[in-house]
Amino acid sequence: MRSALRNLRAHAVARSLHRSATIADAVTRMRFVQIDPIRAPARAADLILRQRVDGYRAGDLDRVYPELGLVEDYLHVYGVLTPEARALLHPRSSALRFRVEQEHPRLASRVLAHVARHGDTHPRDLAVLGRHTTVNGWGSDSAATTRVLEALHFRGKLHVARRGNGIKVYTVAGATPVPRSPAERAQEILWLLLDLYAPLPEPSFREMARMVPDPPPTAVGTRHCGGCPVGAPTRAGATQRVPAPPPPGESPPDSSGRS
For residue 155, which phi and psi values (nearest 5 degrees)? Predict the structure, then answer.
């Protein structure tokens, strides 16, 4: 038993804590790095990359992000991805609607037109569109134009070009590749999660899959990887439709369908 645990621990360290010469190399290898502003004990991206990138210092990802051709998006949590990984997440279903899209249905086209016309756009730049408010998922008021920026980004219409003092600055997203089939996307998303977190128990893997917004129908089974049993997508597994969570920052809809 002890020998098996030692082997499992060695396997986990070897496949996860690899060393890279640059941030670009590390993110390309991992395909996703979580971003979390909470600094307890430090931001998630800094904790992750410090263990994997030679000479990494806190804040380095923010400083070089505009030069690396990476993108920000929501996988199971929010983070930085390679463009190829982000393509697996789109197109997202219009059935997942932000509250602000229902309350201000014409605002998205105005915001998108403003960003297309003016280029890099900080949320405060949209004050020229008027004062509109909405209630966020925590029950407090937010600027509707800021929430629309987030909704357009979630739908792949906008891209985070950089950050100004931690605030996202948006630009129009480039052309997207022809989307793969929902089944192929689901399969690759699950393999991406496995590449990040395996070895892990199958129940944990299933719960993580449920955190992905707007997932296509997925097949989740078990197979062995390097001698270690892990949850893995497989056509032989039980196919199920995973219920989608609400969009990031939104409250779940109630029984009447209101958000």
Answer: -90, 0
